[in-house]
Amino acid sequence: MIVRIMGEGQVQLADSHFTELNKLDDELLEEIESGDEEGFRRTLSALLDAVRRLGSPLPDDALEPSELILPAEDASLDEVRQMLSDDGLIPG
After folding, report:
1. Could you report the per-residue pLDDT of 6-15, keeping only the tens digit for each?
2. Which of 31, 33, 61, 71 has minimal Cβ neighbours within 10 Å of its Cβ?
């Protein structure tokens, strides 16, 4: 799966990593719903770090369609809230 982190680029990520990412996504959703800014910052950073660690960056000139788009690390709680679906940022 191709994942784009806004403002950074794209990474190729194996589907097998989505269980770990979904746990972080569930935590992030709870923190957004409760307005926990500190928890939101910590979990968003952990989610993006996990994508970077588990994925393989695509070259900057690669323009593959992204199947998943994640917010930039400095995105606000309100900006991320607007990106959410019922499942959070990561479907499933």
Report:
1. 999 999 999 9
2. 61
DSSP code per residue over 54-75:
HSEEPPTT--PPPSEEE--TT-
CA distance 92 to 1: 14
Q: Which pLDDT does position 43 carry in this prediction?
A: 96
CA distance 50 to 82: 22
Give residue-wise pLDDT tens across range 27-75.
Answer: 999 999 999 999 999 999 999 999 999 999 999 888 888 888 999 999 9
H/E segment holding residue 10 = strand 9-12
Residues 6+ apart with CB under 8 A from 15: 1
State which H helix or E strand residue 16 sits in.
none
